[in-house]
Amino acid sequence: MALLTGCGSLTPNNTVSSNRAEKNVSQACAAASAFAASLTNFKQTLKPGATVGQIDSARDQVAKSYNDLVKAGQDVVKDEMNAVQAAEDKFDRAVRAVPNDATLSQALTSLRDEAANVQAAVSDLQTGAKC
Prior knowledge:
The protein has 131 residues and is mainly alpha-helical. It is 84% helix and 0% strand. It has five helices and no strands.
């Protein structure tokens, strides 16, 4: 009888653990979507006539949504999260490397390419998490 009672108590714990895992995946997927949207906004900012300040502002939004993704995704899909982190680090370095006196056209292609690389990594993360 005690053995059956012990087994019976595993089901609620497994359910709680499963619910927590589903919540973690849901939060990671929402954060990945928000991050992807901020990257799209960043790329849309890269137009002739945009100022470095506008690019920096869009970059700040990317950074905020990235930090949210790191928090939400850390326990969900680690390999994909590592790839996103590597791509985002490279993207961040590219944005910061643009001199204040550079014209947007000088940095446009490079920044778009870096943002697209991050978006590809986020897409892989979303696939891995089954978003």
